Amino acid sequence: MLSRRTALALPAALLAAPAQAQGWAPDRPVRLIVPFAPGGSQDILGRLFAEALREIVGQQVLVENRGGAGGTVGAEAVARAAPDGLTLLLATAGQTTIAKALGRRLSYDPLTDLLPVVQLVDSPVALVASPQSGIATVAELVARARAANPPLAYASTGVGTNTHLIMEDLAARMGFQATHVPYRGAAAAFNDLVAGRIPMMFVSVPSVLGAQQGQMRVLGVTSRQRFPGLPEVPTLIEAGIPGFEASIWTGVSVPANTPAAIVARWRDAFVQALGTELVRARLGTLGATAVGGTTEAFAALVQQDYERWRRVAAPLNIQLE
């Protein structure tokens, strides 16, 4: 159980509507499928929760990396697994809402073959500009982009990724065009931004936290409130983009038809893990904020996220295999 001190330190939504599921527990080791290669931020998160869950559920939780095709290989493995509570997916938008919104060819339906359990964390992204661009604020970026001929270029971590779609959403809302330059991963994109070959992009908060002073100009973050690790950086809402929020969320899903008691037990277990000192001490360094909350809230987020990216992607004619 959470101590009173720990409980008081957590967001109210994280503790909302406890399921009180006591009728089921895993009777053998559990697989937590991380749909990405070892070493990345999602892999680190998965291993962190696996360690915290061991004592909570009384069984080993074994991380299994199933990378490939933007995370859809791992998601498919979970969608096809037995709905017995012994196979979990560390879910992100890439293999769920974005994959479906882009019309990607999938052997599973992320909205019907996977059942949301709970959102774990939320991580905003940051809008950044290269120092050589001369852009110092969000307002300056928007004004420059509106006037640019040819359009300003922006980097992303790949076609159909969060960093691609978030910039396209911003451009559509603020009435400018920009030329998309996709990279195969964050490192190459970041290097060209720092060198001044690309004037702007959205990057993950951990990339900003790990950057050296002067490598980029951080114009704003996409969270509703300022990110604690970057207290001097305004939100895009504060910077004049009404209602603009976006995040890289991570949650847990299970195969469809998993019994409600099992879903409830895993929801409670992951919320309890969020309250442990082990997890809480690491989230800030990963640029993540604990969320928790109810299964219903996570299901609503997944549906809303899908509708948003479908709307953004519709005019872009993105082609993915």
Give short descriptive properties of this protein.
321 residues; alpha/beta; D-Maltodextrin-Binding Protein, domain 2; 2 domains; 10-stranded mixed sheet; globular; disordered N terminus
Descriptive notes:
- The chain has eleven helices and ten strands.
- It has two domains: 4-122 and 247-316, 3-Layer(aba) Sandwich (D-Maltodextrin-Binding Protein, domain 2), CATH 3.40.190; 124-221, D-Maltodextrin-Binding Protein, domain 2 (3-Layer(aba) Sandwich), CATH 3.40.190.10.
- 37% of the residues lie in helices and 20% in strands.
- Helix 3 packs across helix 4.
- It is an alpha/beta fold and 321 residues long.
- Strands 1, 2, 3, 4, 5, 6, 7, 8, 9 and 10 form a ten-stranded mixed β-sheet that branches.
- What is the annotated CATH architecture of the largest domain? 3-Layer(aba) Sandwich
The helix-strand sequence is: HEHEHEHEHEHEHEHEEHHEH
Question: What average pLDDT do the residues reach?
Answer: 90
Detail the poorly predicted runs: 1-13, 15-21
Strand content: 15-25%
Name the helicity range: 25-40%
Describe this structure in a few short sentences:
The protein is α/β, with parallel strands linked by helices. The protein has helices spanning 4-9, 41-57, 72-79, 94-101, 138-147, 162-174, 186-194, 205-210, 260-274, 277-283, 295-313, and strands at residues 30-34, 61-65, 87-92, 114-129, 152-156, 178-182, 200-204, 217-221, 247-255, 289-292.
